[in-house]
Amino acid sequence: MKIPYVPLLLLFLGVFSCTYHEKNIYINDKAITKNTLSDISKKIIAVPLETTPACQIKEVKQVQQTGSDIFLLNENEIYHFNHSGNYLNKISLDNDAIIYSYTINPENRQLAVLDSMQQLHYFSYSGHKQELKDLSSSLLCKTLYKVAYHNSSFWAIGENISASNCFEKWLYKFDADFNLQERIMLSNVEMGRFCLNNCFTPELSVADNMLYVYSPFSFKETILQDTLYLASSNQLSQNLINNTIDKSQSVYTLPFRMNQRYMIASYQTNSREEENYLFCYDRKEQKAFPFHGFNDDFYQTGLVTDLQSADIYNNQFYFYKFGQDVLRSFPERTVTDNPVLFFITLKS
To answer: SS3 for 326?
Structure first.
C-alpha cells in the first residue's frame, strides 16, 4: 500500500488545545514509502555542467542562480556557468584566505565575496576584481560568516564574544557600500521548551520580501512537533524582518526555509550520517514527508536526500548527482564528468 506521507490535518484541529508537552508528534520514518519529487515539484530543469581541463568540479557548495547565470563554490573557488551548463570563468582570491560565503548583486552584475581574513572582495560576473574592503577593524564583531544582498542592502551573520566569554551570533545590516547601519543579537527560537538545537552557522533567507534567519535543528526527532508549534503560535510572521531591524523585538533563528507552500530543512553532516535528514512540510495539504528523501521520478537519478535553496528567496531548490547516477538519463556523460545540477520549482 502506498503511504506517501503522514497526514496532519487532525493534528492542527486538536493538538494545540493542549499544552506543548502533553503530546509528542513524530514522523513515521520507518514506513515503506514511495515519495517522489513529483509529489512536491512542478518542474525540474537539469543542467549538465561542462567538463574542461580548467573546470574540474570535486565538490558542490553554495550554488546560486540568478537569471541565466549559475555560480557555485568548489575547493575555494567560485565557478561561473550559463543556464545550459557551459563553463564561463572562475573567481579566485589573491590571498590565502578561505571563502566563507558570497552573494550576488544582480543590479550591478557583481559578486561580493567574504573571506576568513574578514575582507570583502567585489568581482564582476566575468571574474574581474573591482574592489576590496577590509572589514577586520571596522566591525563590532569577532567574525562575519555569511553575507547576503537583499533590497539594495547587505545583510550578514557574525559571531561575537560576550563579556562573560560566551559566543553570540548577531545579525548585521549594511548599506550598499557596506557601511554598518544596524545590528541585533540572534536568539534560539522559543519552542515552549528548553531547546539548544541549532548548530550550523545561520543563513539568511527571504519570505514575503522580508528577511529571516535559518539554521536546521541538529536532530530530527522533534522537528515536526516544533514546526506545528511555531505555526500555531504565530511565530513565523513575527520573525520576518522588514527593511529595518526593530530592536525592541527579538530576532530568532528558524529551523527551516520557507516558500509560499513548503517548509524545508536539510541537515547533512559527514561525521554521523545516520543523523542526516531532509524535512519537508506542506502547509497547503498539512502533510509532512518522511526524512529519508524523495525518489527522482523525473530523471531517474535515485534517491534525493538533500535539497538546498538556489537563491535567498527560495524560488528554486537544487540537488546534484555525479557518475553512475546520471548515466541513465545522460548516457553521453562519463563517470568522471562534472556533476549535473537539478533545479526544482516547487508546487504553489
So the answer is: helix
